[in-house]
Specification:
single chain; Rossmann fold
Amino acid sequence: MPQYGLIGRRLGHSFSQTYFTQKFSQLHLDEHRYELFELESPTELPALVAAHPELRGLNVTVPYKEHIWPYLDEVAPSAGRVGAVNVIEFRPDGRLVGHNTDYLGFRDSLPGFLPADLLRDGALRALILGTGGAAKAVEVGLRELGIGYWLVSRDPLRTGLTYDDLTPELLRAHQLIINATPVGTYPAIEECPPLLYAALGEQHFLYDLIYNPAETLFLRQGREAGAQTKNGFDMLCRQAEAAWVIWEH
């Protein structure tokens, strides 16, 4: 039976299995299965593939989006542009090809969240919290929409800003703030990025790539300060549909 799945280190928070199981049911693909594969290291991918000859495609989540490349035969232009892989295509000849649909899911979810005039006039500025594979996908999505941004990291040695740099003045100048870190993901729901939430207001738009919980502490504090908020569920669905197109093309 055709098998698909998700690889990562800890997958208890993931909705992907439920999403694709429901999709297979709607499409009457009764023989299709979607499984969760927790790997302690990306080096385990070849053994996983060998042990599951029915695999037809895999999703990749943290922390392996940037580290799975050596175990693939090829990367598609989308993954090359982003610098991260979240979808693995299994070619009929046995080759494994890495793709990125995260940036599509993020990019295409923004027009329904942000006012059209903000997207149109080119004045919108963003802060991306995080510098990992998810943040790289957000960067590409923002660039395609013409939105300028800064990366924010805890590490002062990285290019960009640190959280200590995020003064009230700087926050006021950046209306869109995207959490591309795993901070706040279930079960650590009482954690959030260290922002000056009191400096936020109704002119801000907070986007969290996390979807479990539906409202992270990051989003809740933004909402209480008057900001508009959005979680990552829409992005999840959009990237999953793009992955399905790759697997079934």
